[in-house]
Structure formats: C-alpha cells, structure tokens
Amino acid sequence: MSNTIYNDVDLKKYSWFNLGGLAKNFFKPKSIIELSNFLSTNKLIEKDIHILGAGSNTLFRDGGFEGTVIKLGNEFGSIKLSNDGNLEIGGACLDKKIANFALENSIKDLEFLSCIPGSIGGTVAMNSGCYGYEISESILSVDVIKLNGEPKTFTKSQIDFFYRGSHFGERVIIIKVKLKATKGNK
Questions:
Q1: Cα dihedral: 46, 48, 53, 59 (round 10)
Q2: Would you call 158 helix, strand, or coil by DSSP?
Q3: How many CA atoms lie within 13 A of 54 on its CB side?
Q4: Is 74 exposed, middle or buried (0-12, 13-18, 19+ CB in 10 A)?
Q5: Which of 69, 118, 70, 74 is CA-nearest to residue 95?
Q6: CB atoms within 10 A of CB 182
Q7: pTM of the model
Q8: Distance between the two ends of the chain, CA-based, in angstroms?
Q9: How far apart are CA 53 and CA 120, in angstroms?
C-alpha cells in the first residue's frame, strides 16, 4: 500500500467548520498515476467514497465516515498558461488563486472566482458562480479519473451543466480543468 493512505484521520482538520469525526480511510494521492492505481486496485463504489476539495462546502458527521475520503494533494494545485494561451488548472487549485493568477495576467471574466471559497474541482462539479457568471461559461475541457481508475477528458459540449450542478457528481474525480483565457486590462 502507498504511504499516502491513512486510517482513522480526524476530519475536523479538513473542514472549514472544524466539525466531524474520523475517516476510516483517507487517501491523499501525490500523482495521477498513484490515484489511478489506487482506484483500479481498490474497486470503490460511489457510496463508499467522498472526494474532498477545500472543505469549504462540507460538513462531516461527528460519527465520522466509514468509507474512503480522497483529497488531492498539493501536486494537483497547479495553474499555468498553456501553449494555446488558455489556462490549465489542477483540480485542487483554490478558486481565489485562479482569480489572482487571472488578475496578474490580465485575464478577464474569472473575477467571480475570488468570491468562491473552494477548489476548481468542486467549482466545476457544482457549476459554481456569482455576480452573473458561472464556471461553465469558461470551461473548455475537464480531465477526470473515473472511480475504476480510468482517465477521461470531457469537452464542454460533453458536459451537462445546470444551475449549481453538473452530471459529474461524485462519480469522477476532477484532476484538471482547461479554462478559456480572455485577455482583459489588469
């Protein structure tokens, strides 16, 4: 087993509200390969897994969680301008970090992310937004890993977005998002 799988982890440390009991299993992958291997080896089912982002929109029971909590590690928190001039963002990257990066690089239409307390993976899954914008308006593609460990890329047209939601749910783990980078004036 990997050294990133832990037992009886206090979930209070991972919730903005400092609530919750213990997670029976807690997995923090350091790479896509490690995540894929873990999922394909352990054959988890949706009800036995919880994907945890920034913990800003999550409340855990005092009795804990009997399944496996998966929290992407810092290695999934990157953000960069791609060769085509758009943004490539790791699934664990904080929304505020994306908004700040957009500001520093004179990219417009992502300002609303500064008001969303979470990570881009959850933002995409929930189609978060505010001030008249939703993340679905900026999506170009989303890379995921299915619960069986299989990677898949969805283009925007393949994703069913709706008000504060998408078809992703917890059936996949969002590992990378590509956003449209429209030039603006800093």
A1: 120
A2: helix
A3: 20
A4: exposed
A5: 118
A6: 14
A7: 0.92
A8: 47
A9: 8
**Which two structure tokens, joined as six digits, stand for 38?**
């873990």
The residues, ordered by sequence, that sit 6+ positions from 131 with a Cβ below 8 Å of its Cβ are 111, 112, 115
Residue with tokens 């500001």: 103
The string of DSSP letters for 21-71 reads -EEEEEE--SSHHHHHHHHHHH---GGGEEEESSSTT----TT-EEEEEEE
pLDDT in tens, 88-133: 999 999 999 999 999 999 999 999 999 999 999 999 999 999 999 9
Q: Is 147 left (phi over 0), alpha (psi -120 to 50) or beta?
A: alpha
Q: Helix, strand or coil for residue 83?
A: coil
